[in-house]
Structures are given as C-alpha cells and as structure tokens.
Design a protein that fits this description.
- A hairpin with a 2-residue loop joins β14 and β15 (435-438).
- Helices cover 39% and strands 17% of the residues.
- The chain has 2 domains: 3-79 and 400-449, Urease, subunit C, domain 1; 81-392, Metal-dependent hydrolases (TIM Barrel, Alpha-Beta Barrel).
- 50% of the residues are buried.
- α2 (95-107) runs antiparallel to α16 (439-449) and α12 crosses α13 (362-374).
- The chain is globular, with a radius of gyration of 22 Å.
- The protein is α/β, with parallel strands linked by helices.
- The protein has 16 helices and 15 strands.
- The strands form 4 sheets. Strands 1, 2, 3, 4, 5, 13, 14 and 15 form an 8-stranded mixed sheet that branches. A 3-stranded parallel sheet has the order 6-7-8. A two-stranded parallel ribbon has the order 9-10.
Length: 451
C-alpha cells in the first residue's frame, strides 16, 4: 500500500473510532438553521441517536441521555449539502483515488453526491457508503453513459436501459450524440421500467422533446440557448466550442427566457445549472493563474492542474472565443437560472466536480455563490442543495432539513451560512449518518489527501 493511502486509512479509522464512542451524539446550545425557514434559532440542542435526529428544541428543555457524546459551542448547524452533478473516479482509476475524492467531498459538508458517470464499482461504493465506518457522502449513481457511440439503435438502447435498471443504478446518464429515434426508445423504456434518465440534451433531440419525455434533470442548462435562439434540433450542428450554446449568444432572444423556464416548470423537470464550470472556462476575468490558487486546488495533482490551465487557455485563444460574447453568455445563464427559480422550476445544486478548476466540495460552495449572484437569496440558494434534494428524491421527510426523524447529515459552522456564502472556510465539523468528524479530524484527513 502506498504511504499516502496507508496514512489516509489510519486517519479515517481514527475518525471513525472517535465518532463512534457513543450511539448518542448531542449538539448543545447551538444556533440552528433547520431549513424550514430562514430563521436562525439560538440556544438549541439536537439529540442524535444512531443515524437519525431524535429530538430538537430549546436547550433548557433538553434531556441529555447518560453517556452521550456532547459537542457544545457557539456554532451554526445546518443540513449537509448535496452535490447533484458529481463525478467519482472511474474504474480505470484506483480505489484509492475513488475513496480520496469521496473523502474530499465530505470534508466540505457534502453529505450526498449524485455521480453522473457511473460504473459497476460505484454500486459497491454506494453500498459501503451506507455505513458510518466509510468516510464518504451518501452516493447516488448513474450507470455508464448513453451517447452516440453506445445508444446506436432503438433495440440496443432499450436493452441498455433494462440492464442498468436491473443492475440497480439510480438513474441513466445521457451524453450528447443520441439520435432522436434512440432517445425516444430510451425514454419509453425508462418510463416503462421506472428509472430516471438525466444529464445532457442531444442536439437532435432538443429542449422541448426532453421536457415532453419527462427527463429527470437537465444538467448545465443544456440546449436552452438553442431554444432562445430559435434553432430547431433538425438544423443544429455543434460548433468547435460546443459549450452549451455559447456560439448562439448573439442570436439569443432574452424575451424567451421566462417562456423556457415556464415550460420547464410545467414539465416538472429539474435543472442543475453547474454555472461554475462555465464561468471557469469562459469568464475572461478569471485567469488560470488565479484559479490555480483557489481553495481546494492544493489537493489536485500538478499534472491535472496544468491540464486544466492549458485547456482554458486553448479555449480562449480559439478564433471562436470573444470576451464580450463570453460575458454576455454567462449573464444570460444567470438570468436563466433566476427565471427558472422565479417560474417555480426545481433547481438543484451541482458544480460538475472534479472538472476544470472545480475541486470536489469546494466548487459546490462556489456554485452557491453564483446562485446568489444570479439573484437567489442565500436561503433560496441553500435550498437547492438541501430541501430541494429531498423533494427531488421523494424523501422530503427524511433529508434536507433538521427535525426529528430526519437523517443526521449536518454541518457545523463558525458563522451564519446565510451571511457567509461561500462558507467552506467556516466548517467546524461534519456529521454524516450520525458520525461526527470535528475540525481537527477534517484537517488531518485533508492533509492526507495532498498529492
């Protein structure tokens, strides 16, 4: 075993031992953001038994069980966050890389991840993550990608759907390149067997057909620019810079933004904007040299960081890139994000990590910041990674809030999260499935993750 892997194993084992000294964990006299409202309740106590919140209320009314582990301090406590467009390293990478990526998410208060490019090994990880003995967020995972190279005819596509449903994946992941007849077969079979299909929208399918078909989530706001520009799926050929309609910016009709948002809301399709990914690639005010020094980048290998920097530089040196057009494109995306919220379409928090300058966990906090910059209040932004996730998963009485009967996935913060987004540097501790990792343990884990 590599020295780094052995160190990580020792650190994580230490965390588990410390976290499991009692079946009852008490957070005493803390400030509580339950996510029922944006009111912060002071002088509160939470009693956690096993993996579930047993009691919450005024500290003066609390009856603390004998032998409980008690954590007390002037902390702010909120539900753990979900990263709804995450990536877990593939089976082509090492088990160590998978575990380290998952650990990195959790150190930043990400207690649920939705893996959007799955593999059989991720089903094994999902099972391991049900135990507090594994330092990992809860895992939801797609299967291997449906794309132009895998979904090549209707019957093969239907067979893929059935196989992934039978294997137990949580959803199907769509990539670009799927022809319309194959998408129609996919949607029909998926709806028949009862498995969600989500992700990209292929050029030949388009936004309106994806909404009509009942796609679970549209990620990256894919193909919304085509809708705004009046480009039909039949005429669309993706350009050199394919990024979600950047090339169509001059043709985009902003007056159609709310129409697109209303159609999305009526179809009850969720959207994961991943705006930070597009900002990192296109925003001319974000230089690669500066992004290399962002929080969390110290845990990314030098070769990966160099690859990200070169990729961004190459995009911006391409003849199709224009700074003013890039700024307008990003502004349209923010206006679309706000319109989706205003029209009642469900927004889910996701940054597409670990991708270009998006270190796991840290980039989720940056995505929260961009939601606020789009016009959402801090409370509304936090809902996209808490309350909304519970609704999306049909688990609104189990996750996303702090109340008796809810899963004990929590973040302890030094500051009020409503006034300190992004708050990755304010995390005092993380509770995952009832187990507590304090700041010292988190720091030890992070030190073990440095390349």
């Amino acid at each position: 075993m590599k020295k780094a892997a052995l160190l990580l194993l020792i650190l994580l084992t230490g965390t588990f031992c410390s976290a499991q000294t009692s079946d009852v964990l008490v957070l005493e006299n803390v400030n509580l953001l339950t996510m029922d409202s944006e009111e912060v309740l002071s002088g509160q106590t939470i009693i956690i038994r096993g993996e579930v919140i047993e009691w919450t209320g005024n500290s003066q009314d609390a009856e603390i069980p004998a032998g409980a582990r008690v954590v007390e301090g002037d902390f702010y406590v909120m539900p753990g966050l979900a990263e709804m467009h995450a990536h877990i390293p593939s089976s082509g990478q090492t088990q160590e890389q998978m575990e380290q990526t998952l650990a990195m998410y959790l150190t930043q208060g990400i207690t649920t991840v939705r893996g959007m490019l799955g593999a059989p090994v991720h089903l094994e990880l999902r099972e391991r993550a049900t135990s507090p003995q594994f330092f990992s967020p809860r895992i939801l995972t797609s299967g291997p990608s449906f794309n132009g190279n895998s979904a090549t005819d209707p019957e093969k596509t239907r067979q893929m759907v059935r196989e992934q449903a039978e294997a137990g994946y949580d959803l199907l992941k769509l990539h670009p390149g799927i022809e319309r007849e194959n998408f129609d077969a996919l949607a029909d079979e998926a709806n028949s067997v009862g498995i969600e299909f989500s992700g990209h929208v292929s050029a030949g399918v388009g936004l309106e057909r994806s909404l009509e078909a009942g796609q679970g989530t549209i990620d990256h706001t894919d193909r919304y620019m085509e809708f705004l520009a009046g480009v039909s799926p039949e005429e669309r050929v993706d350009p050199n810079i394919i990024y979600f309609g950047y090339d169509l910016t001059p043709r985009a009709d902003r007056s159609k933004i709310h129409e697109a948002a209303k159609l999305t809301a009526e179809a009850e399709v969720w959207v994961v904007p991943t705006n930070t990914l597009l900002e990192n690639v296109f925003n001319p005010d974000l230089e690669p040299a500066d992004m290399l020094n962002w929080p969390g980048m110290e845990f990314i290998s030098e070769s990966t960081k160099a690859g990200w920097a070169n990729y961004v530089r190459n995009i911006r040196q391409h003849e199709d890139y224009d700074e003013d057009q890039a700024r307008e494109f990003l502004q349209i995306r923010k206006e679309l994000t706000m319109a989706l919220h205003d029209e009642g379409a469900g927004l889910l928090l996701g940054a597409d990590a670990p991708q270009i300058f998006n270190p796991p966990g840290y980039s989720t906090h940056r995505e929260l910041q961009l939601l606020v910059e789009s016009g959402l209040t801090p409370y509304e932004a936090l809902k996209t990674g808490t309350v909304n996730v519970g609704i999306y998963l049909d688990e609104e009485n189990k996750i996303g809030k702090i109340a008796p009967g809810f899963t004990a996935d929590l973040i302890l913060l030094q500051k009020n999260p409503l006034g300190s987004i992004p708050f990755h540097d304010s995390i005092e501790g993380v509770i995952y499935r009832g187990s507590y990792a304090d700041r010292a343990q988190i720091d030890n884990i992070l030190n073990g993750l440095k390349p």
